[in-house]
Write a structure and sequence with these properties.
Layout: H1 13-16, E1 49-51, E2 60-62, H2 72-76, E3 107-113, H3 117-128, E4 133-137, E5 153-154, H4 159-163, H5 170-181, H6 187-206, E6 230-231, H7 237-253, E7 257-261, E8 264-271, E9 274-281, E10 287-297, H8 306-313, H9 329-336, E11 341-342, E12 354-355, E13 364-366, E14 380-382, H10 397-405, E15 411-417, H11 418-423, H12 433-438, E16 446-449, H13 452-459, H14 463-475, E17 497-503, E18 512-513, E19 520-522, E20 528-534, H15 541-545, H16 555-569
Parallel strand pairs: 3-4, 3-10, 4-7, 10-20
Antiparallel strand pairs: 1-2, 5-6, 8-9, 9-10, 11-18, 12-13, 14-15, 15-17, 16-17, 19-20
Helix pairs in contact: 3-7, 3-16, 5-6, 6-16, 13-14
GO molecular function, one term: steroid dehydrogenase activity, acting on the CH-CH group of donors
Organism: Microbispora cellulosiformans
Cofactor: FAD
C-alpha cells in the first residue's frame, strides 16, 4: 500500500498546518505484550515501538523520527529539505534484529509475510475465527507504510455519506475507476475491492478511525471522483494505523497471533506444487522453518530498490521518499512458487517535484503548486526541447500527468520572468519570494539569466527553441492559445528570466503479482498456486488503478482484501 507513499505534492489544508502535536493514536502509553524467546530476547509489537539496538532482553522504547510538536507534513514526506538547505540522505534499510520468535517447525493455520496495512487486518480477522496465525516482518515495528503514507481511502455507500445526503454505490465507484483509468485496471479485482470497501470502512470507524470534518470529498491529489467518497484522517496514514492496532493487539493478547519483527520470509516451501510453509531469516543470519496451511504475501512494494524499480517500471527511481523495507522481496517469493509479475507498463508519474540533486534516488526539495484550482499558473512549462507540451491550466491532473509521462526523462521546466516572480502568488507555498529567488544560482535545479537563450543553456533546455516558444506564447496573448490555455495574465518578457527543473516521479509500485478474484497467486495460464495468496501493494497499482491514479485504491483494497481472506476466504480445518 501502502504508498504508497505516493508523493503528497498537494495535501489538504490540515496537512500543511504547522506545529501540530503528534498524538500517536493507540501507540501512546500502552503496555507492550512481550513474547519470550529462549536466551532472553523479547518482542515489542506496537507500531512506533522499537528496541534499543545492541542489547539482548532490552527495554522497549518509543521510537521513530516523530516527536511532539513535529510538523505533520514533515512526518508524511520524510527526507524533504527545508528551504535553502539540502535534504538529508535517505535512510539506510535496517538490518534485521530478531524481535520475536516461534517454535521451529510449528504448524500454523495462516502465515502472513508482512505486518503492514493488509497483513495486520488479515491476521486480526483470521485469529478471530480461531486460526493460529504467524506474522513476520523485517521491520522493527508493525504498520509498514502507514507511518509515512498519506492514508487515502475511498468507499461508496458508507454511513458518513448517508449522513451527508450523498447518494453513492459500489457500481458508481467502479464506473469512476474505469473512467479515470480508461479501462486499464483488472476489473474483477476492482469490483471485489469496491463492493466490499464500505464494510471495511465501517469496521475502521468502529475501531475509532477519525475522519476530517469536511470529508468525504470528491478528490485530493488525484483526478476527482464524480461523487464525494474520498476520506482522509487528521493524522494521515497514522490515523489508519491507530484504528488497526487495538483489534490486532487484542487477538495477539489472546494468543491467536504470534508476531516476529525484524524477521524476513526468505523462501517458500512447496510439495507437489502446493505451498506448505516458509523459511524465515533471523537477525543473526540463522533460519527457521515454519509449516502453514495458508501463506499470504503482504510484503508491500519495491520502490526502495532502484534496480528493481527501473526493471519493472522502465524508468529511473528518481525520488528517495519510499518506505525503506519496500524492496520487492515478496515478488521474488511469488515468482519462485510459480506466480508471475504484471502491470509495470502502466507506470504513471506525478506532475512532479523539485529534487535536491541528480544522484538518484534523490530527496525532494520542494513542490511547486501545479493544481489550477489552488493556484492558476502564471508561468509556462517546457520540456527539454524547449517546447510547451500541455495547457498549464488544464483542470485534469490526469491529462497533465500523462503529458509529462511522454516527455524526455519525465522532466519539465517552469519558465517565467522577473515581473511574474514578483506579482504572481507564491509558487512554493512555504517559500516567500526571497527564499525562492535565493535558490537561483545556488541550487542545481534553479537557473537565472538575462536572455532566454542563455537560460536554456544553463538549464539544459534547447536555447533557440525556448526563445521561440516564449515568443509564440507572448504573441498569442491577444488570441487563442494553441494548447487551449485560458489563464494568461502576463507575457514572459522582462529579464531576468528564470527556470526551475521539475521531476516527474512516483513512489507507488506499479507492477505486482498476478492474482485471481479469490486473491490466489496464479501462474501465466491463470491456474492458482495452491495455498498461496497475495494482498496489498505487492499486487501493484496497475491492477487496481491502471495507468492512472485513483484516490484511495491502494490502502482501501489492501485492508479489504485482508479482511476478506481472514474472515471468509481462507480455510484451515
Amino acid at each position: 500500500m501502502a504508498v504508497h507513499l505516493q508523493p503528497a505534492e498537494r495535501r489538504p489544508e490540515h496537512l500543511a498546518r504547522l506545529g501540530r502535536a503528534h498524538r500517536g493514536g493507540a501507540e501512546q502509553g500502552r503496555r507492550v505484550r512481550r513474547v519470550h524467546r529462549p536466551g532472553g530476547q523479547e518482542a515489542g509489537a506496537l507500531g512506533g515501538l522499537e528496541r534499543k539496538p545492541g542489547h539482548r532482553g532490552e527495554q522497549v522504547r518509543q521510537g521513530g523520527p516523530d516527536q511532539a510538536g513535529a510538523r505533520l507534513h514533515d512526518r508524511l514526506t520524510p527526507r524533504v529539505a527545508r528551504p535553502g538547505r539540502s535534504a538529508p540522505p535517505p535512510p539506510k534499510p535496517h538490518q534485521p534484529s530478531h524481535e520475536g520468535t516461534a517454535s521451529v517447525n510449528k504448524a500454523w493455520d495462516v502465515i502472513v509475510a508482512g505486518a503492514g496495512t493488509g497483513g495486520l487486518v488479515l491476521a486480526t480477522f483470521a485469529a478471530r475465527r480461531g486460526a493460529r496465525v504467524l506474522v513476520a516482518d523485517p521491520a522493527p515495528r508493525v504498520g509498514g507504510t502507514l507511518h509515512i503514507a498519506t492514508g487515502q481511502l475511498s468507499a461508496a455507500g458508507t454511513r458518513l455519506q448517508a449522513e451527508r445526503g450523498i447518494e453513492d454505490s459500489p457500481e458508481a465507484h467502479l464506473a469512476d475507476i474505469l473512467r479515470i483509468s480508461k479501462g486499464t485496471v483488472d476489473e474483477g479485482l476492482v469490483r471485489l475491492a469496491v463492493e466490499n470497501a464500505a464494510d471495511t470502512f465501517e469496521w475502521l470507524l468502529g475501531n475509532g478511525y477519525e475522519v476530517l470534518p469536511d470529508h468525504p470529498v470528491q478528490g485530493q491529489n488525484h483526478e476527482p471522483y464524480s461523487t464525494p467518497r474520498y476520506y482522509w484522517g487528521p493524522e494521515a496514514g497514522r490515523s489508519i494505523l491507530a484504528a488497526l492496532l487495538p483489534p490486532f493487539e487484542a487477538e495477539r493478547a489472546k494468543g491467536g497471533i504470534t508476531l516476529l519483527l525484524e524477521t524476513e520470509v526468505v523462501a517458500l516451501r512447496q510439495e507437489d506444487g502446493a505451498v506448505t510453509g516458509v523459511t524465515v531469516r533471523l537477525a543473526d543470519g540463522s533460519t527457521e522453518e515454519h509449516t502453514g496451511r495458508n501463506v499470504v504475501l503482504a510484503t508491500g512494494g519495491y520502490n526502495s530498490d532502484p534496480e528493481r524499480f527501473r526493471k519493472l517500471n522502465g524508468v529511473t527511481a528518481y525520488a528517495a521518499a519510499s518506505y525503506p523495507y519496500a524492496r520487492g522481496r515478496g515478488l521474488d517469493l511469488g515468482v519462485s512458487a510459480g506466480g508471475y509479475v504484471r502491470g509495470g507498463e502502466k507506470y504513471l508519474c506525478s506532475f512532479g517535484s523539485v529534487l535536491d540533486h541528480d544522484d538518484h534516488p534523490a530527496p525532494v526539495l520542494c513542490r511547486p503548486v501545479h493544481w489550477p484550482e489552488m493556484r492558476q499558473p502564471w508561468e509556462i512549462y517546457v520540456n527539454a526541447h524547449g517546447e510547451r507540451f500541455v495547457a498549464e491550466d488544464d483542470p485534469s491532473v490526469d491529462r497533465r500527468e500523462h503529458a509529462l509521462r511522454a516527455q524526455p526523462e519525465l522532466r519539465r521546466w517552469i519558465v517565467f520572468d522577473d515581473r511574474i516572480a514578483r506579482e504572481a502568488p507564491r509558487l512554493v507555498p512555504d517559500w516567500p519570494l526571497e527564499t525562492l529567488l535565493g535558490h537561483f544560482g545556488t541550487h542545481p535545479m534553479f537557473h537565472r539569466a538575462d536572455t532566454l537563450e542563455e537560460l536554456g543553456r544553463l538549464a539544459g533546455v534547447h536555447p533557440e527553441n525556448l526563445a521561440r516558444t516564449v515568443a509564440e506564447y507572448n504573441a498569442a496573448l491577444g488570441g487563442d492559445d494553441p494548447l487551449g490555455r485560458t489563464h494568461r495574465p502576463l507575457p514572459v518578457a522582462e529579464p531576468p528570466f528564470y527556470a526551475i527543473r521539475v521531476q516527474g516521479m512516483s513512489i507507488t509500485s506499479t507492477a505486482g503479482l498476478a492474482v485471481d478474484t479469490r486473491l490466489r497467486v496464479v501462474d501465466r495460464a491463470g491456474d492458482p498456486v495452491p495455498n498461496l495468496y497475495a494482498i496489498g501493494e505487492i499486487l501493484g497499482s496497475g491492477q487496481l488503478m491502471g495507468d492512472s491514479f485513483c484516490g484511495g485504491m491502494l490502502a482501501t483494497p489492501a485492508m479489504t482484501f485482508g479482511r476478506l481472506l481472514g474472515d471468509r476466504m481462507l480455510t484451515w480445518t
